[in-house]
Amino acid sequence: MNTEPTRTSPRPVQVGVVGVGAMGENHARVYSELRSVDLVGVTDHDVDVARQVAAEYGTECLDIDSLLDRCDAVTVAVPTHAHYETVSRCLEAGVHVLVEKPIAETIEQGRTMAKLAQNAGVVLQVGHIERFNPAVQTVGDLIDDLDVISIEAERLGPPIDRSAPGNVVFDLMVHDVDIVASLLEDDPESISAMGTEDSRYATATMGYGDVVATVTASRVTQKKVRKLTVTARECLVEVDYLEQSVLIHRDSYPEYLIDDGQRRYRHESVVERPRVDNGEPLRHELESFVETVRSGSEPVVTAEDGIAALETVQRIDALVSGEEPPRRREREREVEI
Questions:
Q1: How far apart are CA 87 and CA 103, in angstroms?
Q2: 229: number of Cβ within 10 Å
Q3: Which among 84, 69, 148 has a CA at the least distance from the CA of 117?
Q4: Distance in angstroms (rounded) separating the CA atoms of residues 233 and 217
Q5: Domain residues for 253?
Q6: What is the value of pTM for the model shown?
Q7: In this structure, what CATH number is given to the domain that contains residue 158?
Q8: CA 223 to CA 213: how far, in whole Å?
């Protein structure tokens, strides 16, 4: 479909959601609130769930072929094992796609999807939502001026559904793997990792030249933590994803004082709180996706970014599992399909 706006009255982008589980329903909710789009329908293998979501957000429950016929763009929020088939179907229909992370089950599938999008002339964006967290974006603006030594990320806490299976490396750690790569604009040269046999806790250390990054993901920690710490020669930057806050610690001065004849220790530092324009990361993500569809520009999180994150977490998971990790490969732009 043509999504070129007119100068006087931009036509709303026609969007849909494929897969309306917990994440997909949130996409439907946000799309229904955006003035620049029309949510024309949702689809899901569970028709009853799709009908409920459609009724909740004032749209229609459609089969996937009917949805693709009406849409300029869709979110694909089906289980990862169905990403390749579903996304390929959308791209071949000439529809722009935002696919939830990870991009696919395998690197080969991801590269084929990227080539399909290129051939069809449509956008393929990967849903690494933390890129759109205002606190992370604030750090991204700062980091070019810092001499970074290390980055540490923690993504801890029990799942909402305590019976939920899944692997923390692919489900949780992938977020911070992508954030570190985006901040350093590179892929890791070396990786070491350890974790539990049940895949509910893992920690990895990655080398990026002179920078060391450590990422930890856990579903056994009984406190929800989402934090990022950047250690630089000039300062220490602390990011709280949940609070959407950034603290910059500078000029730390330890000293001893004499108080009533007693020797006391004091440690002071200058703490800066840069302004963070708070907002819902998902809303920022979908607004960016829609604008990319309109303009034909490159998405903030490209298919290559999603493939690189998948390759890194595959290497981490192999180390945690005690398997031989796949060798690191240079990012490739072309595949035969």
A1: 10
A2: 15
A3: 84
A4: 26
A5: 134-243+245-278
A6: 0.87
A7: 3.30.360.10
A8: 22
